[in-house]
Amino acid sequence: MASQFGYCSSSSTTFTPSSFKNETHLSSRFNIVPRKSHSSTSISLIRLRIRPRKHFQLKSSSGHPLNAVSLQDGTAGVPLAKNDMEPQGKEESLPFSQSENVGPHLSITIVGASGDLAKKKIFPALFALYYEDWLPENFIVFGYARTKMTDEELRNMISRTLTCRIDQRENCEDKMDRFLKRCFYHSGQYDSEEHFAELNRKLQEKEAGKLSNRLFYLSIPPNIFVNVVKCASLRASSTSGWTRVIVEKPFGRDSESSGELTRCLKLYLTEDQIFRIDHYLGKELVENLSVLRFSNLVFEPLWSRNYIRNVQLIFSEDFGTEGRGGYFDNYGIIRDIMQNHLLQILALFAMETPVSLDAEDIRNEKVKVLRSMRPLQLEDVAVGQYKGHSKGGKSYPAYTDDPTVPNNSLTPTFAAAALFINNARWDGVPFLMKAGKALHTKRAEIRVQFRHVPGNLYKRNFGTDLDKATNDLVLRVQPDEAIYLKINNKVPGLGMRLDRSDLNLLYRARYSREIPDAYERLLLDAVEGERRLFIRSDELDAAWALFTPLLKELEQKKIVPELYPYGSRGPVGAHYLAAKHNVRWGDLSGEDS
Amino acid sequence: MQDGAMATTATPIENETPFKRLKDGLLSVPSSIEYNEPVALDINEKESAVSITVVGASGDLAKKKIFPALFALYYEDCLPKHFTVYGYARSKMTDAELRNMVSKTLTCRIDKRENCSEKMEQFLKRCFYHSGQYDSQENFAELDKKLKEHEGGRVSNRLFYLSIPPNIFIDSVRCASLSASSGNGWTRVIVEKPFGRDSESSAALTKALKQYLEEDQIFRIDHYLGKELVENLSVLRFSNLIFEPLWSRQYIRNVQLIFSEDFGTEGRGGYFDNYGIIRDIMQNHLLQILALFAMETPVSLDAEDIRNEKVKVLRSMRPLQLENVVVGQYKSHTKGGVTYPAYTDDKTVPKDSLTPTFAAAAVFIDNARWDGVPFLVKAGKALHTKRAEIRVQFRHVPGNLYNRNFGTDLDRATNELVIRVQPDEAIYLKINNKVPGLGMRLDRSNLNLHYAARYSKEIPDAYERLLLDAIAGERRLFIRSDELDAAWALFTPLLKELEEKKIIPEYYPHGSRGPVGAHYLAARYNVRWGDVGADQ
Fold it and tell me: What would the DSSP string read from start to end of A500-519?
C-alpha cells in the first residue's frame, strides 16, 4: 500500500541533490516578477474590482512579508480599504491604466476536467461565481485531462450541469453562453511536462501579455497529485502574477504519508501557494459559526465547560458506496469524513477568540485546539459497517456487496468517537463525533448540549433525569439550514406543564436567497487569496497526529466493525460509547429525528 | 401543593383561618368548632362545595371576563364537582334573565367545539342571581341562605369576586364577611384595581379590608400576572441554563416594558380621568412584571417565596423622579377622512383635564444585580398599535471581531430578547447572523418561538388562570399588601408632584407613536426604544 503513497516522482526516500537544484531553479522562476510591478498591480487591482466584495477585508496575503513567493501571491483580489493600502505601490506609476476595463487576467485550470467532481461541483461553482459577477473581468477556464476532447465537446459536457440560481433566472441562457465561450480544453497526460508546456502556450495566448494569475484545481486521484504539481509548476506557472494550486482530500492516509505529500508538494510550491480545500469549511452554517460566537453577546459567556455539557458533531448520508467503493475502501469513514470535515468544524467551534479574522490568526487558534487534544484511543471509538437490508420489498446492498469492495473488507462505513480537548476551556467536555454512510437520514449538524440548571426551581416538572431537559443549541449544516435553540417553556394553558420548544431560525423562511454551494465560496476565496477556509500544513499534521495511532491500531488488530442494516440509525455501539461519557445523541432522541 | 404544577387539579384549602369572624368574636356562629378541626375541611374534597359570587354581576367586567372565564374553567373540567355561581347586583333580575345575559358572552375554545352548547346549558343551570344592595347585611344574609341551600350541608367554600367600583369595596366586604361567610370552609375575596390612588388611600383601603378579612383571604388581582407569557417569564429564567447567566447588569444594557392600546377612552373616561395611565397601567401591571423580571431566584415557587423576592425588588428601587418621567395626552387627529377624538373630547372627561393618557418613565433598581441598568417603562392609550411586551437589550460584544460589519454604533447591533405578551404571543431572540451568500454581510435575525405556530391550543384568558388559582388558594399571582405598599411608595411622590405642579402633558395625535418626549427620556439613559425602531 505504501508504494501507492510515494508521492514524489523521484524516489520518495532518497532526496537527490538534483532535485534540490531543481527546486531552487523553480523558486527563482517564481520570483521573476520584480517586486515593484507586483505591488503596483495589486493596487490597480484594488481599484479595478468589478464589484467590491464585502468580505473581511483581510490583508492576508500581504501579511506574509517574509516569503518571496507570497509577494507574488499577494495580488489577491481582496479589496483593501483605501486607508489599509500598503504604501509600497507609490514607488512606481501604475503599469495598467486605471480604466475600468483592464485588470489582471485569471486563468483557472481544472486538472481532471472530465471527472465527476469537476462536472458536478467545480464548473457549476465557477459559473455561479461568473453569474453573480464575482469573477474578474478577464478570466478563462481551461479543462485539462487525458481524454481527447475539443473545446466544443467540453462545453457541451459542462453545459449540462450548469444551473442558474433559482431566485434570479433572468439572462440565464445568455450568461451560460458567455460563460461557455470562456471555457477551453486541453488534452494531456498528467505527468507530461511537455503537455503542460502546451497548455502554458495556450494560456499565454489567451492572456495576451496581460498580468496573469493562474489557479490550478487538482481534481484528480492523489497518486498523481505530485506529478501534476511538478509539471504545472515547472511549465505552466504564471510568469507575471501568482500561481495557486487547490488540492482536495485525501491528504495522505496517515501522518507519514501526509507528511510525505506535503514535503513533495513543497518541492514545487510554497505553503501559501497550496490551497488545501475542505469543502465543509465553505458551508454556510460553518462560516456562520464564528459569527454566532463572536458577534453575539449571548453565546460567548456560555461557550465553555462551565455551561456546555457536551458537543456533538454529526454527519450522516442516506446512501452507501453504490458501486464506487474502490477509493473509499482504501480510506474508510474516519479518514473520509472525521479526520478532516468533522475535526475542522470541531476546531472552529472550540477555538479561542482569534486576534483578528485574518486567516493566519484563525488558523493559529485552530492548530492550538488540535494540539490540545488527546490522540484518539481505541476505546473511545465505535466502528461499523452497513449490511444488506430488505425493507418494503426492496433490498439494499451490504457494503461488501459493492463489486469494487473486497468481500472481506473491514473498512468502517460508520464511526463514532469521543474526543477531548485538554485545555482550560474544555477540560472534561466530551466532543462526540459520528459519521456514517447508508444511514436513515442525510444530515450534518452541530449540537451543543448545555448543563442542567443548578438548583432548578422547576425540578419536579422534569422527572428524574434533569439532563433530559437541558438547553440544546443546534446548527443544522445540511440539509435545510437552520439554527435553533431548545428551551424549556411553559405549555400555554392552565396549570404548569413544561416542554422543550425551539427558538428557531430556519434559513429557508428567513432568507429567500439560495445559499451558495461551498465550492463557490472556496473557489472565490482561492482567487482572492483568502486562506481562512483552507487547511494549513501544520493543521493537517496536527489532525493526522490525532488519528494516526487509532487508525493503525484498527488496521493492525483487524478490528471487526459492528454491522448495521442499510438505512438504519447505525450500530448501537455508538449509544454505548455515548453512555460511557454520559451523553445522549441528540439526533436520535425521538423529538428531532 | 402550592406549586403551579398542581394548579389544574384544583386542590382546595390549606390551613388558613377560615374566616375573619373568629377574630371579631361578634357572631355566634360555631366558628370555634371548625377552628378546632380544620383538618376535617381538607380531607374530602368531594364533599365540599364552592360557591362563587360575582358581586356586580351586571357590570361590564363580569359579563366580558368573569362569567366567560368561569365557563372556560368548567368546560375544561377545572372546577370542583359541586359549584354554583351567583350573580349579585342591585338590578332586579331573575335567574333566567341572568342566564340569558351571561349566555351571550360565553364562547367555547376554538380548538374543541364538541358539546359546546350542551356544556353551556349545564353551566348556566349552575348560575343564579340574587338582587341586593351592596351595603345591606340583610341582603347578603339572604344570599347566604340561598348559598347554603345549594351547598346542601357540604363543606362550603366561598369565593366573592368584587366587580364593583372601589368606593363600595368596603361596604360589600363588610356585608359579605359578616353575613355570607362560609360557616365551615374558606371564604376568599377577589378585589381588582384600583387599590387606592396613592400610598395613603391604598393603606386606608387595606386597613379597612383587614377589619373584616385576613390578609390571606384577600386576593388582589393583577390580571397581567395571569398572562401566559408573564407566567412563562419565570420558567424561561429559571429552567433554562442559557438565560440566567446573562440576567444581570453585566450583560443586560437595559430593559423595556411596553404597553400600548390603539384606542382611547371612547366615552368611558370618567373613571380613568380620576386615575390616569400611571395608576391604571404603570404602577400595577408594568411594575409587577418588572418585579418578576428582576427578582432574585426565590427559594421555591411557593407564593410567599416569590412574593418575598418581588417585594425586595420593589424596595430596592428608587422612587420615581419627575425628571425621569414623560407624560402625554392624546389629541384629535384626522386620517383618511376619519377624525379621531382628543382625550378631552370625551364627554365624561373635563375639558381642562391634565390626566396623562401616556407615560414613559426610567426606573432603577439599586441592587447588586441591576445597579445602573435603566428599566424603561412606557404605557399609553390611543397609540398606533396594541401591544404589551418586554424587551431586553444586551450589551455589545466587547472586542467584537466583526466590528467593521456594524458601522459606528455597536449598540445598534446588540442581542435583544423580546417577550411579546400580547397580541400574538411570541418569544424571540435577535441575533447577529451571517447573511447567506458569498461575502460577509451580517444582519439581525430572530431565533423565534411563535406561539400560534408552535402550540395549537388556545391560550387561556388571564382571568381563567387567576380564578382557578383563587379557588385553589394559590397566591403566587396575587398582590400581597406589602407589595402594594412598596409599589405605591415608588409612585406616590411623583403622582403628587405631577398634580401639585399641574404638569401639562405633551400632546400626541390619536393613533400616533406617542409623544417624542419618550425618545428624549430614553436618550438620556442611552437607550433606544426597541418597539419603534425601523426593524419592527
Answer: EEEEEEEHHHH--SPPPPHH
The residue with greater pLDDT, A59 or B488, is: B488
> What ipTM does the predicted assembly reach?
0.78
Min mean pLDDT across A50-59, A258-267, B187-196, B445-454 is at A50-59
Asked if residue B493 has a cis previous peptide bond (ω within 30° of 0), the answer is no
* Mutation target among B78, B418, B438 for the A interface, most CBs of A within 10 A: B438
User: pLDDT tens digit string along A8-22?
Assistant: 654 443 333 333 333
Of A455, A469, A505, the CB nearest to B445: A505
Residue with cell 468517537: A417
Read off the pLDDT of residues B338-383 as tens digits, 9 standing for 90 and up.
Answer: 999 999 999 999 999 999 999 999 999 999 999 999 999 999 999 9
Using a CB-CB distance cutoff of 8 angstroms, which residues of chain B are in contact with residue A511? Answer: 435-436
* B409 pLDDT above the threshold of 90: no
- For an interface test with B, give the residue of A167, A284, A298 to mutate (most B CBs within 10 A): A298
Q: How far is A371 from chain B (nearest CA, A)?
A: 24
Q: What is the mean pLDDT of residues B214-234?
A: 90
Contacts of B464 in chain A (CB under 8 A): 494
> Which residues 211-250 of chain B have a CB within 8 Å of chain A?
228, 231-232, 234-236, 238-242, 244-246
Give yes or no for residue A100 having a pLDDT over 80. no
- Is residue B431 within 8 angstroms of chain A, CB to CB? yes
**For residue A129, which residues of chain B lie inside 8 Å, CB to CB?**
438
Contact B126, B154 (CB under 8 A): no
Please tell me which residue of chain B has the smallest CA distance to A485.
Answer: B447
pTM: 0.81
B53 vs B57, B159, B162, CA distance in Å? 9, 6, 8
Candidates A296, A451, A458; nearest CB to B241: A451
List the alpha helices (DSSP H) in B213-281: 228-239, 269-277
B105: cell is: 358572552
pLDDT, chain A, mean = 82
Q: How much of chain A, in percent, has pLDDT values that exceed 90?
A: 57
Record: fold of B225-400+481-524 = Dihydrodipicolinate Reductase; domain 2 (3.30.360)
* Domain boundary assignment for chain B: 31-192, 225-400+481-524
pLDDT tens, position by position, B187-221? 999 999 899 999 999 999 999 999 999 999 999 99
- Nearest beta carbon to residue A516 from set B301, B417, B438: B438
Q: What span, in angstroms and rounded, lies between the C-alpha atoms of A411 and A459?
A: 46
Q: Which residue of A has its CA nearest to B243?
A: A298
Looking at A105, A195, A341, A440, which residue is catalytic?
A: A341
**3 state SS for A398-454:** CHHHCCCCCCCCCCCCEEEEEECECCCCCCCCCEEEEEECCECCCEEEEEEEECCCC
- Contacting residues of A for B441, CB less than 8 Å apart: 54
Q: Which CATH architecture has domain B31-192?
A: 3-Layer(aba) Sandwich (3.40)
Round to whole Å and give the CA distance between A108 and B198: 79
